[in-house]
């Protein structure tokens, strides 16, 4: 998977997303760039996976390559890299640029929710047996800054029958910005 | 704002994000496309806003042009368009493509959380006086499909002192996929 050149392409597209937001180029330059982007997209789409990567699996391709949080082909994804700790918990270190803005200069609260949903779920997933979110509660303690070193962690607190209770948080500089509690379920196959 | 050519550019970048995920082009084509994307990004970044759009305000530019949910310059944003109803509630109709994938073929639960955080907040915001999320609880009722007509709605249920209690949901085909309850606060200025 690591030699898939679309992973590097996604990195370039992330920089283009940022540039599109912040550019002060003149209108003619922006229009010319757009026209060339459209031509490049046409080159990429001569042959494509017919839909979502998770559904239309292609040999040699990660099933999560298109995932909005961890997908290496997905320029929307930061992408997060999850680390599974010896104690069963998970953690990930990341930073979010201006494309994740909500309140001026800060990460959108919804983006924090999105990331915590994924990180709490990752603490529950078992190989070949993904969990789904039942309930998720978020408590916002302080603003989460853009372009700053952030960390998200989660661990299982308790299991009761089909329900797994998970807790986690995002920190910046050792201070919690958002806390989360979730109940995750394993869908019947 | 509507004559900002970067808005159209962001639309093209959204199609490029999708193409980057789904392309089956050969490695040489993908590498050549990446090289050209990097050149186009360099053209856009000769002069830029020095940071987040909400902080470094530029005349003629919407302050929310870079917002991750509604920002028209932000290719990560669907972008949502909020409609304020006569009864004080808000609603938005949208669809999410493969770039928002979580479980195979379905919208990531975290993306639903992100959207509901924004839509519930939009029901509380007053002109020039944005609200921030205090607590948000999400209940996942059924999977949310990709590439399908979705609707999100929210309304204020009650106000108690500085706290505003809000409820909302996402529906597909008239059925609720995710419900949300939130407590929003107006930060002191």
Automatic annotation (TrEMBL), chains A, B:
<keyword id="KW-0966">Cell projection</keyword>
<keyword id="KW-0443">Lipid metabolism</keyword>
<keyword id="KW-0809">Transit peptide</keyword>
<comment type="similarity">
    <text>Belongs to the THEM4/THEM5 thioesterase family.</text>
</comment>
<dbReference type="GO" id="GO:0006631">
    <property type="term" value="P:fatty acid metabolic process"/>
</dbReference>
<dbReference type="InterPro" id="IPR052365">
    <property type="entry name" value="THEM4/THEM5_acyl-CoA_thioest"/>
</dbReference>
<dbReference type="InterPro" id="IPR006683">
    <property type="entry name" value="Thioestr_dom"/>
</dbReference>
<dbReference type="GO" id="GO:0016787">
    <property type="term" value="F:hydrolase activity"/>
</dbReference>
<keyword id="KW-0472">Membrane</keyword>
<keyword id="KW-0378">Hydrolase</keyword>
<dbReference type="Pfam" id="PF03061">
    <property type="entry name" value="4HBT"/>
</dbReference>
<dbReference type="GO" id="GO:0016020">
    <property type="term" value="C:membrane"/>
</dbReference>
<dbReference type="GO" id="GO:0005737">
    <property type="term" value="C:cytoplasm"/>
</dbReference>
<keyword id="KW-0053">Apoptosis</keyword>
<keyword id="KW-0276">Fatty acid metabolism</keyword>
<dbReference type="InterPro" id="IPR029069">
    <property type="entry name" value="HotDog_dom_sf"/>
</dbReference>
<protein>
    <recommendedName>
        <fullName>Acyl-coenzyme A thioesterase THEM4</fullName>
        <ecNumber>3.1.2.2</ecNumber>
    </recommendedName>
</protein>
<keyword id="KW-0963">Cytoplasm</keyword>
<feature type="domain" description="Thioesterase">
    <location>
        <begin position="105"/>
        <end position="177"/>
    </location>
</feature>
<keyword id="KW-1003">Cell membrane</keyword>
């Amino acid at each position: 998977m690591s030699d898939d050149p679309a992973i590097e392409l996604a990195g370039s597209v992330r920089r283009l997303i940022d540039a599109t937001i912040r550019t002060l180029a003149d209108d003619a330059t922006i229009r010319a760039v757009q026209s060339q982007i459209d031509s490049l997209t046409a080159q990429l789409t001569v042959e494509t996976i017919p839909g979502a990567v998770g559904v239309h699996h292609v040999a040699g391709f990660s099933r999560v390559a298109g995932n909005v949080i961890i997908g290496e082909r997905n320029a929307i994804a930061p992408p997060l890299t999850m680390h599974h700790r010896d104690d069963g918990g998970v953690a990930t270190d990341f930073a979010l640029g201006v494309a994740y803005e909500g309140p001026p200069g800060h990460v959108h609260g919804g983006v924090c929710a999105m990331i915590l949903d994924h990180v709490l779920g990752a603490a529950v997933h078992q190989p070949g047996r993904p969990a789904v979110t039942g309930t998720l509660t978020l408590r916002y303690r302080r603003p989460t800054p853009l372009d700053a070193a952030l960390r998200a962690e989660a661990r299982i607190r308790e299991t009761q029958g089909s329900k797994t209770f998970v807790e986690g948080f995002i920190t910046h500089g050792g201070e919690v910005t958002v806390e989360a509690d979730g109940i995750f379920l394993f869908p019947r196959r």
